[in-house]
Amino acid sequence: MLLASRLLIALFSFVLCIFAIRGDCECATDARPDCPEIKWRHKWGSNASDNNVYRPIPVKRVVIHHTVTPECNSFEQCSRIVRNMQAFHLNTKKYQDIAYNFLIGDDGLVYEGTGWHVAGSHTYGYNRNGTGIAFIGDFSAKLPSSKALDAAKHLLKCGVENGALDTNYELYAASQVISTQSPGLTLYNEIQEWDHWSPNP
Predict the structure, then answer these.
(1) Among 178, 173, 179, which Cα is nearest to 191's?
(2) Average pLDDT, stretch 180-194?
(3) How sure is the predictor about 27, in pLDDT bands with cuts at 50, 70 and 90?
(4) Taking the model in full, what pTM does it have?
(5) Where does the pLDDT of residue 30 fall: very low under 50, low under 70, confident under 90, or very high at 90 and above?
(6) Bridging pattern class, strands 110-112 and 102-104
(7) What pLDDT score was predicted for residue 14?
(8) What is the helix (H) or strand (E) element at residue 91, kind and residue range?
(9) Which of 28, 62, 83, 195 is the most buried (most CB within 10 A)?
(10) H/E element holding 77?
(11) Three-state SS across 2-28?
(12) Alpha carbon of 120 to those of 4, 6, 33, 38, 89: distances in Å?
């Protein structure tokens, strides 16, 4: 009876964690070896949003962006940029929240945006069925740091392991699906070498 009770408590905690608003609960599933370090919203100082649009998982598409902001090499720098970006998206763009599901700094850390379960505003036509990952900086003429690129690849593996991404997901550059220069020509050439990249959105 005691064992059954403990199992029920563990299962209930896990379900609460999965459906917690934007990952404020740090799920054990994100501590796997292939998962990068993720800075959840409360750690980078996010503002709350009451306009969440939840979407079914697994998601079948991933869209890569760059932010065309200054780059960042520390948690303090990256957190400040992500906070400013969220404020811009909320107050000027009138989005429901920060546009991206995840952002990645040159420090090699992943910053949770709307997360796996909540739709972003990153790519018209791909917000409810695509996860938007943005590299912090401008990567038209150079690549993000090797730490950032590794973090992105681990995040994608993590998404598949956690059931948030379809095992056969397709990876696109934003410029393949909308009129934009994002994620920059150099980064676009890089992601064409990644697993799951698709030339035909």
Answers:
(1) 173
(2) 97
(3) very low
(4) 0.83
(5) very low
(6) antiparallel
(7) 39
(8) helix 75-91
(9) 62
(10) helix 75-91
(11) HHHHHHHHHHHHHHHHHHCHHHCCCCH
(12) 38, 36, 26, 17, 11
> What is the 8-class DSSP label of residue 59?
E
Structure tokens given for 18: 């999965």
User: How many Cα atoms are found within 13 Å in the side-chain-facing hemisphere of 162?
Assistant: 27
pLDDT, position 139: 97
> Which residue is listed with tokens 């401008």?
138
Give the amino acid at 76: E
Residue for token pair 């920059």: 184
CA distance 172 to 169: 10
Cβ 97 vs Cβ 104: under 8 Å: no
Burial class (CB in 10 A: 0-12, 13-18, 19+), 12: exposed
Q: What digits encode the pLDDT tens for the residues 65-120?
A: 999 999 999 999 999 999 999 999 999 999 999 999 999 999 999 999 999 999 99
| Alpha carbon distance 123, 130 (integer Å) | 8
